[in-house]
Amino acid sequence: MTTAAHDVRNVVLVGHTGAGKTTLRQHLFQVAASLGSHVDVTADTAAGEGRPSSPGSNRATGSNRATGANGATGANGAWPGVGAAGGGAGTASGGETAQRSVSLVLGSLRHRGVTVNLLDTPGYPDFVGELRAGLRAADAALFVINAIEGIDGSTRMLWDECAAVGMPRAIAITRLDHPRADFDAMVMACQEAFGAGVLPVYLLEGTNIPDPDYPATAATARTDGAGGAGAARRTPPRRLIGLVTGRLIDYTADGRHEHEHPVELTGAAADARGALLEGVIAESEDEALLDRYVDGAELDPKILLDDLETAVARGSLYPVLPLMIPPGPERGAHDFQPGLGTAELLDLFTYAFPAPSEHPLPRLTRPDGSPCPPAHADPSGPLVAEIVRTTTDPYIGRMSMVRVFSGTLRPDASVHVSGHGRAAAGHPDHEDRERIGALSQPIGLSLHSVDECAAGGLCVITRLATAETGDTLSDPADPRYLPAWTMPEPLLPMAVQAQARSDESKLSAALGRLGAEDPTLTVRHDPDTGQLVLWCMGEAHGDLVLEHLHDRFGVTLEKVPLRLPLRETVRASAEGVGRLVKQSGGHGQYAICRIVVEPLPAGSGIEFVDEVVGGAVPRQFVPSVEKGVRAQLERGLVAGFPAVDLRVRLVDGKAHSVDSSDLAFQAAGGLAVREAANAAGVVLLEPVLEIDVDVPDEHVGAVMNDIATRRGRVVGVTSQEGAGAGGEGLERGSGRTMIHAEVPALEMTRYAIDLRSVSHGTGVFTRRPHGYERLPDQLAAKVTGLA
Ligand SMILES: Nc1nc2c(ncn2[C@@H]2O[C@H](COP(=O)(O)OP(=O)(O)O)[C@@H](O)[C@H]2O)c(=O)[nH]1
Ligand SMILES: [Mg+2]
Could you state a single Gene Ontology molecular function term (predicted)? Predict the structure, then answer.
C-alpha cells in the first residue's frame, strides 16, 4: 500500500476534555465506511494499541467487536494509555470515552482516495506532552470546541501557539443538539478569540421539523439571528447550508441528502457567504476571480475550494463547521446514521486541508550539527523520520509511532537513530544503528502491516531497541538529525518509596522503561534528602505513572511527603572549645582547640581561618582541625542539615608531644564547632526558587496575590506583546505578562497544580534554584519536628 504525499492528511484533534474529540474520531470512521470509502472496519484504535495482524491479513469487515477482543488480548491496560484510550474498545459497549483520554491516539481512514490520519489528543493539561507530539506529527489542527462550554484559556493559548508556527487550523463546533447550543454565537465567540480569519464554511439551518420556538424557513438560512442567543431550541438542527456551493444538506433518519441545486442565500447566510468568498479570493491573489466576484458572476466551486485550501494551508483562514453527534446506542453498519456535519468535515479534510508536501519541514542538520541540504516531503528523497510516541507491548515489545518527513521507510531496513539534547531529563545523547522490523498502520482495532511508509505518512514500527520519543531515523549512509520539539518540563515533584524491599530491585529498570516512553516524566534521586522523586506534569500524570509501575512492572510505590534540602547556619558569633583528653594508660589522646564561629552573608559557604599564634596548635594539626570542623558542618549542627554561610576561626589550642594526633584534632574540631554553634544559636535555611510566571494580563493580579501568600517576593514584571496575534490583522488585546519572583521552595511544591487554577489553565512557569534564606522559626519547628 503506497500513498503519495499529496494523498495524505495528518490532522490533530485538539480541544478541552469533553469537547468531543474522541467521539468525533470514532464516528468519522463509521461515516467514511458508510460513504463507501475504502474503510472496512467501523472503529479505530490507538497507535500501537492493537496487535499487528499477520501480514496480509487485512482483516476486513469482520465484526468490529471480534477484532476488538483480539486487539485487546494481552494489551488491555498493559500499555500507557491503553486503559483509557483504547482498552475500552475490547469491552462490550465501546467504553473508550467513559474514561479520560491520557494518550495520543492515531487512527487512519480513507476518504475520496485520501488517507486521513487522525491524531486524537487528550485535553487534560497533565498530558500536554501527548498533545505536543500530536502537533508535531500533524500538518493541520482541528480545534474541537464544545458549543455549551465555549472556549477556555488553554484552547486560546494553544491557538496562539499554532499561530506562532503557522500551523493551519480549522474549527469544529460540537454539541449542537443541546437546547442551549447556538452555532452563530459560537462563531462570533471564535472570531473574537481567534481573529477575523475565522469563517464558517457551512451554516446551520434551523430545522425542518416545525417547532414553535424556532420557526424554520423552507429553503433559506436564518436571516435575522432570531435563533441566536437565548432562543432555546427543542428540536436539534437537521440541515446545513454549504456556503461555497450554496447547496442544502439534510440529515434525516434516512441518512444524508445533499440537494442538487443551489439556493439563493439571503440575509445573514448571504453575508456569511460573502465574507467567506472575499476571504478566499483575497488570499488567492487571483485577479480574474476577484473581477468575476465583483461583477456578481457565477464562481466555479472547484476553483473556490482550491483557493480555500491555499488560504487554509497558509494559516490565514480558519474554516468553521457545525457538528452534532448525538450519543446513542451504537448502531451496526446497516442502520448507521452519520452525525450532522461529519461528511462535510471529511470533505473539508480532503479539499481544504494541506497535504504533507505543503508543510515546511523542521530545520535539519547532520548528527554532528553541520549543515545539510533541506529535505522535502519527497518519497524518493533522503530518509528523515521522527519518533513521536513510544509504547511497550508485553508481547511485541517497544512500538514507535513514526512520522516520515522525507524519503520512504521500508520494513527490515537499517536506519540510523539520532537522539540529542535531553540529557538533563536522563536521556543521554545517542547515535545508533538499528534494523527496523514490521511497519504497520492502525486501521480498525488492529494494526495492519504495510509495505512502506512514504514521506508525509504516519506508521508504527515495532521492536526498535534504543530509539526513544523525539529521536530521528535516517539513512545510515547519510544520517540526519532533526531537533526534537520542545517537550514540556515536569514541574510537580512527587516523592515515592517502594512498599517492599523486593520492589526496589525491579524499580530502576521499570522507571527506565517508562522514561523512554514518556518524555514528560523525569526521575531523580535527591542526594541531599535521599528521596526518589518523580517529577510529573500533574497529579493525574503521577498517579498514572504509579499505576503503570504497579500493573505493568509489579512494583508498588507509595507517595511520601517531599523532603526539602534545608541548611543550617549560626545566628551570631560565639566561641567554642573542643577538648579531647584521654591519657589514662597506654597510648593517650590529646587535642584542645578554641574556635570562633561567625555568620556570613547568604551564599558565602564555609570559610576556615587559621589565627593560631606561637604554635599553640602545631602546624601539622591545623588541617586536622579544619577537617573535623568541616565534617561536623556537613553532618549538621542541630537538625542534621548541612551547615553553610559561616566562618570558623581557629584562635588557640594545645597539643601534647606524644598523645596528640591527626584524629584527635579532628575530633576536637568537631566538638568545638558544635559547642560554638550551641552558644551562637542555630537557624534553619530553606531553599528559595526564582520563578518566571507567564500569564495573560487579566490574571496578573491573582497570580501576584497568590505569590504573596506563598511568602514570595515579586522582583519584576514585564509585559509582553500580544502573543500570536501578529500577522492575523487583528487587535486581540490578549497581551501576556511575565512575573519574576523569588519564592521559598517549600511553598512551591504544588505550584504546578495551583497555578492552573489561579490562571484558569493559562499560566506557565519555570523555576530554578536561587539560594537559601532563613526559614521562619514557626515553620522551622514544623519542618524539623524540633521546638
Ligand atoms: N449530545 C452530544 N454529545 C456529544 C457530542 N459529541 C460528543 N458528545 C459526548 O461528549 C462526551 C465527551 O466526548 P469525548 O469525545 O470523550 O470528548 P474528548 O475529551 O474531547 O475526547 C461523550 O459522552 C460524548 O458522547 C455531540 O455532538 N452531541
Ligand atoms: Mg478524548
Answer: translation elongation factor activity
